[in-house]
Amino acid sequence: DFLFFWGAVFLVTTTLVAFLKKENEELIPAKEETKGITDTYRLLFSIIKMPAVLTFCLLILTSKIGFSAADAVTGLKLVEEGVPKEHLALLAVPMVPLQIILPLIISKYTAGPQPLNTFYKAMPYRLLLGLEFAFLVWWAPKVKHEGGFPVYYYAVVVLSYALHQITLYSMYVAIMAFNAKVSDPLIGGTYMTLLNTVSNLGGNWPSTVALWLVDPLTVKECAGAQGHTCATAAATEV
């Protein structure tokens, strides 16, 4: 109901803006980026053909493959192991002030001539935290008892998530700073949008693939049903 309500509000307001809001034809800026949609896509195509941009896009599209499983699947696996969803949601609350403060701190290190250095330095730590998340999932059934999970387990989860947020925001702020730095000021909006879109896509497609691979890569055993591997949904149902 919540999502439906705000989805409806979003559609209505953006539709009203599209039909009721008109461009100011009298005050055309001296250095207008583009004159229309066709020009914009021509400009984007000319940007992406540049060797440096093409190489950068290829790197940014593949740089987050190593984090995809940890980022997308950890929460789901913790719930599968018995950690209540409402507890995981509560653990996200302490992350909010951290998420507000981190960009302010990290921006000091990405304001220099080489903002991607922060990106590179954070990457190995984020990869190691992927192993830490795997350990948390493995550890969950070991410490679970009738009353749920002990406080120290939640403390380790919160600490792990906090460290993960530091590495995540270090990479995020660094890539945004780099995109802003290399974008041509005359076509800054178009240039920035292209690089940020590629950056977002580089984080989304590996997570989608990771979620899709969960079932095929999960080893399952059937109790009391010899000859069944439970490898498929149909076998599990049987």
From TrEMBL:
<feature type="transmembrane region" description="Helical">
    <location>
        <begin position="87"/>
        <end position="111"/>
    </location>
</feature>
<protein>
    <submittedName>
        <fullName>ACATN protein</fullName>
    </submittedName>
</protein>
<dbReference type="InterPro" id="IPR004752">
    <property type="entry name" value="AmpG_permease/AT-1"/>
</dbReference>
<feature type="transmembrane region" description="Helical">
    <location>
        <begin position="123"/>
        <end position="140"/>
    </location>
</feature>
<dbReference type="InterPro" id="IPR036259">
    <property type="entry name" value="MFS_trans_sf"/>
</dbReference>
<dbReference type="InterPro" id="IPR024371">
    <property type="entry name" value="AcetylCoA_trans_1-like"/>
</dbReference>
<feature type="transmembrane region" description="Helical">
    <location>
        <begin position="6"/>
        <end position="22"/>
    </location>
</feature>
<dbReference type="GO" id="GO:0035348">
    <property type="term" value="P:acetyl-CoA transmembrane transport"/>
</dbReference>
<keyword id="KW-0472">Membrane</keyword>
<dbReference type="Pfam" id="PF13000">
    <property type="entry name" value="Acatn"/>
</dbReference>
<feature type="transmembrane region" description="Helical">
    <location>
        <begin position="43"/>
        <end position="67"/>
    </location>
</feature>
<dbReference type="GO" id="GO:0008521">
    <property type="term" value="F:acetyl-CoA transmembrane transporter activity"/>
</dbReference>
<keyword id="KW-1133">Transmembrane helix</keyword>
<feature type="transmembrane region" description="Helical">
    <location>
        <begin position="152"/>
        <end position="175"/>
    </location>
</feature>
<dbReference type="GO" id="GO:0016020">
    <property type="term" value="C:membrane"/>
</dbReference>
<keyword id="KW-0812">Transmembrane</keyword>
